[in-house]
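Notebook entry, structure prediction.
Reason for the run: the old model in the group folder had no record of what sequence produced it. Starting over properly, with the input documented here first.
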Amino acid sequence: MVILEEETSKARKESVHQQAERHALYIIIDAVFGLALGLGAFSLTDIPLRNGHDLFLAVSFFAFSYFVISMSWMALRPFFKEYIVYGSINGFLFITGFFIAILPVSMRLIMMQYLKQTSLAILEASLMLYPLCMAVISMNMGVFSFAFSKQSWKTIPWDDLTHLLSEGVGSFVMGIIFLISVFIPLERTLADVLPFNVLSKLPPVEWIPFKVVFWFLGGIALAGPAVLITNLILRFRRPKD
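New structure, fully documented this time:
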C-alpha cells in the first residue's frame, strides 16, 4: 500500500510527456545494454583462435568488458525507476548508450589484431577507441549518480545517498583513468616500466601494453580510495536522528 502511494505521488509530479520519456528510456536502456553484451559474446565466435592461450586471452578480455557493461546496466537501470528523468540527463543517457553500443566493435578489432595482426594502425586506433568508450561510460555513470543524488538529497535515506554518491565518485575517477590511458602510446609496454630483475620473476608479460596495466593500477590506487574517502566523509556528515 505504501509503495503504491509512493508510485502514485511520483506519477503526479510528472507530466504525460515525462512519463512517456521514462517508458522510452526503459526500452532503450534494456535494448542497448543487452545488445552490447550479446554482440560482444557473438564477436568471439568469429575470431581465429589458434590455441588455448588465444582462447584464454579472448575470454578474459570479454569478461572484463562484460563485467563493466553488466555492472553499469544494473547500476543505471534503477536510477530511472526511482528518480524523475528530465533535461540534460536524457542527453547523457543517449551518449552513454552510443558508446556502449560501439564497445563490442573495439573489442573485436583488438582481439583480431592481437591474434593475427594485419594493420598496426587499426590496432592503435582500436586501443584508443576502447578506453575512450570506457571513459565516457564510466564518467557518465558518475554524472548520473551526482544528478540523482542532488535531486533526492533531502528525500532518500542517508545510507542510500552514501551508496549513490560513492559509486558516482568511483565511476567518475575510473572514467578519468580510462581517458588518460587513451593517450598512452601502444608501444609502451611493461618491459618499458618494470626493471629486468622484476620481469624475470614474472610469467612472460613484458609484451602487455602499459595502458592495460594502467587501468587496473588506477582502479586500485585511485578509484578504490576515492570511494572509501567519499564513504568516510559522508559518514561524518551523517545527520543526527
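Summary: Residues 6 and 157 are 15 Å apart (CA to CA).
The old model has been moved to the deprecated folder.
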